[in-house]
Write a structure and sequence with these properties.
Number of helices: 7
Number of domains: 1
């Protein structure tokens, strides 16, 4: 098994300390991950937020393992911020709901190509607004969310096949 290095970048901005973990998810599978992380985070006691990215469903299991280990060492889920890339409707919906259940803060970002030819689908704008506003995220499920008068997001799930194909 390879040894991995955990690098923490701590940035102070207006008396708030942000910590980012620079590594790959494979590090969470190593037996000494939690001990190394704990020893490095003890030095900076004012950790406000730890940021991760869960862009695909394949990253969920390693992320859950990391959350479990961080919780074991006293870092609560509420201090974990997760970037979520929105590409496919059902996949994004499942990931955001899982993060919501875990008590972490998801931040959804619509997938955007930089070729100038693709357009971001409306469901990505709606899901990003839903996930990024805590009051909306905590009060209603995405399928029941009404971003506009006369429209309910459950409509997106009726023709999910067409939505996913338009984004590729």
């Amino acid at each position: 098994m390879q040894n991995y290095q955990i690098d923490l970048l701590t940035v102070t901005n207006k008396n708030v300390v942000y910590t980012m973990v620079y590594t790959t998810f494979s590090i969470f599978q190593t037996p000494n991950f939690a001990e190394n992380f704990h020893s490095k985070t003890k030095k900076s006691k004012n950790i406000e937020v730890i940021r991760f990215a869960v862009d695909t469903e394949s990253q969920i299991d390693p992320f859950l393992s990391a959350i479990e280990k961080l919780n074991r060492y006293g870092i609560p889920s509420r201090k974990i911020f997760v970037f979520v890339l929105l590409r496919e409707l059902l996949d994004s919906y499942r990931r955001i709901n899982l993060l919501k259940e875990l008590g972490v803060h998801p931040f959804a970002q619509p997938f955007r190509r930089f070729d100038g030819k693709s357009k971001i689908p409306q469901w990505q704008y709606d899901m990003a607004r839903y996930a990024n506003r805590k009051a909306i995220l905590k009060s209603v499920d995405f399928k029941d969310y009404r971003p506009r008068r006369g429209f309910k997001c459950a409509e997106y799930f009726k023709n999910d096949v067409n939505i996913n194909q338009s984004n590729q």
